[in-house]
Design a protein that fits this description.
By secondary structure, the chain is mainly beta. The chain has strands spanning 4-15, 18-32, 35-45, 56-58, 64-70, 75-80. It is built from no helices and six strands. The mean pLDDT is 82.
Length: 81
């Protein structure tokens, strides 16, 4: 279970030709490698597809020193302040 305090439900994320429900809240704790992020605002996107992960989350990028995507390797690199 995601350690999330939900603040607002009923938000919607819209893309080109798609819509997804979003829960806005406060992520109590997330461990990424050697870094532990605590009490961060987050939007959790519903994933209705049968093969999708349980959830996808969006964190504000300004909380990180840098964010880069490796599309060939299919991973994300984040550096914390």
């Amino acid at each position: 279970m995601l350690p999330l305090n939900v603040v607002f439900t009923g938000a919607e994320l819209r893309g080109l030709g798609s819509r997804s429900g979003v829960r806005i809240g406060n992520l109590r704790q997330l461990v990424v490698g050697a870094t532990t992020l605590k009490d961060r605002p987050v939007a959790v996107v519903e994933r209705p597809e049968p093969d999708a992960p349980d959830y996808d989350g969006l964190l504000p990028l300004h909380t990180f020193a840098s964010v880069s995507f490796n599309s060939l390797g299919r991973y994300l690199v984040v550096r914390h302040h």
